[in-house]
Automatic annotation (TrEMBL), chain B:
Residues 1-23 form the signal peptide. InterPro entries: Polyketide_cyclase/dehydratase, START-like_dom_sf. SUPFAM superfamilies: Bet v1-like (SSF55961). PANTHER family: BLL4707 PROTEIN (PTHR39332), SRPBCC FAMILY PROTEIN (PTHR39332:SF7). This is MxaD protein. It holds the Pfam family Polyketide_cyc2. It comes from Prosthecodimorpha hirschii. Keywords: Signal. It comes from the Bacteria.
Amino acid sequence: MVLVLGLLTVVAGPPAGPAVADEAFVTNQGSDDLTVVDLDRMAPVATIAIGGKPAGIAVSRDGRRAYVTSPDSKTLTVIDAETRAIVKRIALTGGPLGLAVHPSGHPVYVADWYAHRLLVVDPEAGSVTAQVTVGESPSGIAPTPDGSLVLTADRDSNQISIIDAASLTVVAVVPVGTRPFGVTVSADGRRAYTANVGSNDVSVIDLAARREIGRVPVGNTPYAVALAGSRAFVTDQHADTITVFDTASLAPVATLAYGGEYPEGIAATPDGRRILVADWFSNTLSAIDAATLKTLGTAKVGDGPRAFGDFIRRTR
Amino acid sequence: MKHWTLTAVAAAAVALVAATADAHGPTRQKVTETIEINAPAAKVWAVIGNFQDMSWHPAVVKGEGKGGNDVNATRTLTLQGGAVIPEETLEKYDAAGMNYSYRITKEDVKVLPVTNYTSRIAVTEEGGKAKVEWRGAFYRGFPNNDPPPELSDEAAIKAIKGVYSSGLEALKKKVESGS
């Protein structure tokens, strides 16, 4: 069905008018590139060569820039998200992996997986302007929607660090489950969720109280969490499932054998109606209906998609 | 210099034996090997479907374990030459679907230069013949930047490809010869 629609659209040419579909920017670590997927058609529309085994991705809120970390080459690649052109490659040190863009578009935060620090990068100047010492093996990064705080999931310290974005000081450390990898902040900025790879659960953190207020069991080796409406969606890497739970009651909703294998990066569309999942082993991006929980379709991407970070590009 | 490197590698190896969830390399690797066997799938599954019996693999000289084919069953494999894979744990077992998944829960990168290793072996039937697919996902043996050659991504891929292809070829020979 998806294929047929895709072919028809190609034959008919690009749609007229200003409506352009939101897109997924999927980092393919094995094939060293990035696939751009049109989320209306669930079809790949561009491939951008990156190099250095790209893993982390962050698209700016205005949809103009995409940033990609390559831990092997220790670079941050800056992409013009609209033209798909590489604007620059910024040389870093250590093991750049997780990253996030400040809601204002500036600066970019990069976690150093090896040196236990958060790098603050000026993407225009192409330079590191500051470093913040955090816990061991910082992985996921998430700013609060108002841009006042930045969170790092410090995987090997079993904690998150909460950093004041203005002063760049760690204002709190919150113990969570074992080996937190992805961290996601709710749209209202009140809560954070970490996927705990080692304890097979999700920690729910109250950001005002700066403490863990709940722990939700999920499937084997969770990677990251996406939020849509009153639901959280968690990729269970080794179980090949998505665990869905209710964010108010923290009660389980469903465990989805959704069709992909080795699910990793996960994100909701801006309208909250669909969940996108990078299927690392099957080399696809899957779309799931956030309400009905049905798999809507898949798009072929490159080898070993990770899409670790905020990989959805808003275009409207 | 060489001595220092070897010492560092040995220290890293010791530290990794009991620490599967600790920091790992930046790039997870995947390997998939398949083979077609001229036999019904059920006949092939009868040979490989017991998690506690890896005797079909030419590199394995002894297997010891507990828990049978239940999820969380474990096995310890002794290889040709005496090296040991300390512990593998069954994560999924599907007799009807003829596949199982397992992970290395206690690793020794001197024996197999990988960390965070998971694997799945599956038999399907296509046109009266069996197709066996054995695949793995893993990180290299060295958890930090700039790995020594023997613990690099390339070394990890080569080692796992070798395990899979030699095992599948031996399996094919064993089943097709009727032994």
